[in-house]
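Weekly modeling sync, notes
Attendees: S.R. (lead), two postdocs, one rotation student

Agenda item 3: backlog of single-chain predictions. S.R. asked that every request posted to the team notebook include the full sequence so nobody has to chase files. The rotation student volunteered to paste the first one in as an example of the format we agreed on. Action items at the bottom.

Example entry:
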Amino acid sequence: MRVLVIEDNPQDQFILQNHFDELDGIYDLEMNDSLLSGIKSYQERKPDLVFLDLSLPDCIGLEGLRGILNFDPNSNVIVFSGNRDLEIAKEAIKIGARDYLLKSQLDSDRLRRTIHFTQERLQRERIQIRRQKELEQFSKIAAHDLKSPLQNISQILEILKIQDPNDETDYLELLGECIQKMEQKIDSLSSVFRN
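Predicted structure, as returned to the notebook:
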């Protein structure tokens, strides 16, 4: 797993590296000490996870998180901060952080759980996206299959009108109105799956 750490404090980098070393699995860590170098590294490596400090030389607070998410809204950022302010933690999650870890409370077990839960959420999101695409595909097929007979009926109506242009029979007009209503309902069904 490729992990990008954006943290300017060498001691915190060292502690985080040690916790990763204690975990099962292979973690390819890259350390960056500024947001700018972190985003450049992100472009080059496309990491699976980003650990972001909120106090960097070139960015303070949640702007760093916004910067990464503006660059790639699908990035998996875990805020790694010494700031205990619950409102900042809530805002970070609201903005799009996957988790908010306090440096003072970090240990190998907490790191393991955070990575595991992040991967679980990502898996659920991927399944949800796949299901949404499947539903969209189904709605397109269903709409096509339902509209085909309606098109045939419309063509038959046109033929009937041509054969007897003086025929003002109400059932032909009524049938045409029914076809239009059915097409509207099919379009509504199709739009439900798209939204």
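Discussion: group reviewed the output briefly. The beta strands are 2-6, 28-32, 49-52, 55-56, 59-60, 77-81, 99-102.
Action items: rotation student to repeat for the remaining queue; S.R. to check formatting next week.
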